[in-house]
Specification:
This protein is α+β, with helices and mostly antiparallel strands. Helix content is 42%, strand content 27%. Helix 3 crosses helix 5. The longest helix has 22 residues. The chain starts with 8 loop residues before the first strand and ends with a strand.
Length: 267
Amino acid sequence: MPVPEKKSTTSTPDPETFEQVGLQLPDQNTFHQHLREQIRRAVQAVMEEVMRDELTKFLGAQWGECTPDRHGYRNGSYTRDLATSSGSVEDLRVPRDREGHFHTKVFERYSRYEPAVAEGLTQMFVAGVSTEKVGEVAQTLIGVAPSASTVSRLNQTLIQQFEAWRERSLQNHYRVIYLDGVHFSIRHTEQSDATIILTALGVDLEGSREVLALRACAEESKDGWNCLLQDLWTRGVTQIDLAVTDGHDGLLAALASLFLPPCDSAL
């Protein structure tokens, strides 16, 4: 079924604002780019936990565990940076053993499989963390199935990180907010399901852009948009100078109910 051509709907900006910002809705690649900037902390958490699991398997023993199979001891960690497509991840803690025989494979495998790792973390960010997704990402980085305890720790860490992002306080005044339903594929093992991610991308008074909120829905609707916009309001947004949309009736109704005035959306 063909998708109808989108038309941009905006409030009436003053000339200065109109010259400083583009009024086209961001495409899906732009959405991914801004979203993946939020994934860097998750990359650090996953890699550090995976390297600890890797060292445990190398030594044949957990921390402080005495076993006949142990063949070495931990010796703290050192730090290094990692260049990613979303920017540098700084001060990654790399564990080491006392004899200096342990050499992690995580950085080599990350360089080789970075798109798959980034996509897996992005899907968790959008659709929610699951033990299946955590296990897939961890296995990509170490080449073998991670331990159940590692998956459990990562699961909890990522849930906390992602929820902290979703619930963070926002600025009260944004120059522009782009509102769009982004088509997104969520992969489940060998099957992918299409879903709609209702997205708010904000431009603050200094011109910086960031994804403010997102909500997974089966389809665009007034109720879905109302929930997302209410979330923005609850987290501190009270003034929008300019709203850029595709003209979806449900979105315009939800926008008007919360932000008009001062944001007057007009065709």
